[in-house]
Amino acid sequence: MESDHKNTQQSSLDPVPPAVQQRMDSVPEPQSRKPVYLNSLNYFRGLAILFIVAGHAFTLAGWHTDAAYEKVIVNLVKGGTAFFVFISGFLFHHIFSRNFNYRRFMSKKIGNVLMPYLVVCTPLVIYYVGIRQGGPHADLMYTAGTGVVADYLLPAWNYLSTGRLFDAYWYIPFIMIVFALSPLFLNYLTLPRRARLAGLGGALLIAMLIHRPVHNIAIVQAVVYYLPVYLLGMCVSLDRAAVIKHLTGKEWVIALMMLALSLEQVMLYPEYANMHKPALVWAGLDINLVQKMLGCLFFYVFLNRFEYRNWPWLKTLAAASFAVYFLHPVLILAVKKSGLTDLPLFHQLPGIVMWGGWTVVIGAGAFLIAAAIRRTFPRRSRQLIGW
């Protein structure tokens, strides 16, 4: 999701320990040690943000998905954040694992990812906690007791550490934890292929058992849940040539597997789309995660066909993807508060049409706002909106 894909080399200051670096250097790579700019991965990032906006636009559409085929569509569209996690894992190996500098890496992530989050969320936390003594999911953010800690400090920390001010903001504290664990991922990359795949399989099994956290509040559970997606991204980058060789031409087999899993979830599971529950409560295996990981492979291999195509509009959307991700929940909330969705006209149109329309409106609106901020604050927009 970050635009660090354009960077090609990290500083050699504060390198990883010599033993780890020696093992890293011993890992064979099918491509040059110098990172290659991949148009196809950038295009994937542009499409990923469309999936995420579309997944959140369902809440505006008033679309009652009762038919099986409608639920299958929702299954395939929602949960697009997995694509961003895959891309982030891919880029970690493709770019940052070379001459890794933990201090510089985390400094960039704090400035370009965490800082925009704090810029937007801190005033809201001050308003909700300091003035209203409430806010979204207040029953979960506040604890019993009185005093400065119980009334102010703890709920403020809970909001900032979970991102529950807006529906999509849980991703920021989640991905910052993932970034902080980078030294562990460096060691993972030095493992033999069989050990890497075994680790990926074990992480996937655990993730399928625990599901996504309720309301996306338990961030540690989210880290464990999305760990196999991040590992998959790293593994695909590490064996990029082999993945392309063996899966090119088989994209539609992968697509059929995705469709079959989506249909299976609709027919056999009590819920469709993203599966949420407390980590230690049994509710079956989360096959939606497997479907999304197959989706990562599908788009990665399919878009490789267009590696040498030049699509400026998709490159621009990819560059602005974090800003769009960051701003679109704010727009969705503004639309809900405005009462636009209650106008009679919007109740006369089919739900699927409204969903498509709101996806375009929210996505385009977030992009235009981001572009205006970037134009107004060219030197600070990266810290304000991540673009």
List the helices and strands and how they pair.
Blueprint: H1 18-26, H2 39-61, H3 68-77, H4 81-96, H5 102-132, H6 138-141, H7 148-162, H8 171-180, H9 182-189, H10 193-210, H11 219-238, H12 240-247, H13 251-268, H14 287-303, H15 312-319, H16 321-338, H17 344-348, H18 351-376, H19 381-385
Helix pairs in contact: 2-4, 2-15, 2-16, 2-18, 3-13, 4-11, 5-7, 5-8, 8-11, 10-11, 13-14, 16-18
Account of the 3D structure:
The structure is a single chain. This protein is mainly alpha-helical and 387 residues long. The chain has one domain (3-385). It is built from 19 helices and no strands. Helix 2 (39-61) runs antiparallel to helix 4 (81-96), helix 2 (39-61) packs parallel to helix 16 (321-338) and helix 5 packs across helix 7 (148-162). The chain starts with 17 loop residues before the first helix and ends with a helix. The model is unreliable at 2-32 (pLDDT under 50).
Instruction: Note the run of SSEs as H and E.
Output: HHHHHHHHHHHHHHHHHHH
Overall pLDDT level = 87
* Percent helix: 55-70%
Q: What is the terminal-to-terminal distance? A: 11 Å
The helix-and-strand class reads mainly alpha
| Main sheet record | none
Number of helices: 19
How many separate domains? 1
The general outline is globular
Provide keyphrases for this structure.
mainly alpha, 387 residues
Structure in a nutshell:
Helix content is 70%, strand content 0%.
